[in-house]
Amino acid sequence: MNRTEFIIATAIVLFLAFALGWFASWLIHRLTRVSRADMGELEQMAQALHEAEETRDQALTYFEQREAELSNQLSQTEAELRAAMDGLRDARHEAEELRAYIDRTQKA
After folding, report:
1. In angstroms, how far is the first alpha carbon of the chain from the final one?
2. pLDDT of res. 29
3. Torsion of CA 96, 100, 102, 105, to 10 degrees
4. Distances in whole angstroms, Cα of residue 46 to Cα of each of 5, 39, 85
5. Buried b or exposed e, range 10-31, using 16+ CB within 10 angstroms
6. For residues 69 and 75, what is the distance between their CA atoms, to the nearest angstrom?
7. Which residues, at least 6 apart from 9, have a Cβ–Cβ distance to it below 8 Å?
């Protein structure tokens, strides 16, 4: 094999490698290409996902506000209960004192 034949053979091998690479690239692009219908569907799914995330965020905000309101109401109710129990204890103590006073006055 002389020099010219070697150059031609090398050029043919390089051209075949280039052609095979180009064909493989075209084939992969063709097989993995997303159609316009699929893009529309993906766009709708993305929009639905965005709306669902917004709804979830709104629900979380609502529940946080509601929890804060209920915690506040519970604290107020507990404070009222403590005040009522203190008042009841004082009333029972006063009633005992009055009963004792009445018993002492009736015996005398």
Report:
1. 147
2. 87
3. -160
4. 59, 10, 58
5. eeeeeeeeeeeeeeeeeeeeee
6. 10
7. 1
- Please report, for residues 6, 24, 37, 53, 67, the alpha-carbon distance to residue 27 in angstroms, rounded to integers and kept in the order given: 31, 5, 21, 38, 58
What is the block-wise mean pLDDT of the chain (108 residues), using blocks of 10 residues? Answer: 91 96 92 77 93 97 97 97 96 94 87
Contact 1, 9 (CB under 8 A): yes
The pLDDT assigned to 49 comes to 97
Tell me the C-alpha distance between 54 and 35, whole Å: 29
What DSSP string runs through the chain? --HHHHHHHHHHHHHHHHHHHHHHHHHHHHHHPPPHHHHHHHHHHHHHHHHHHHHHHHHHHHHHHHHHHHHHHHHHHHHHHHHHHHHHHHHHHHHHHHHHHHHHHHH-
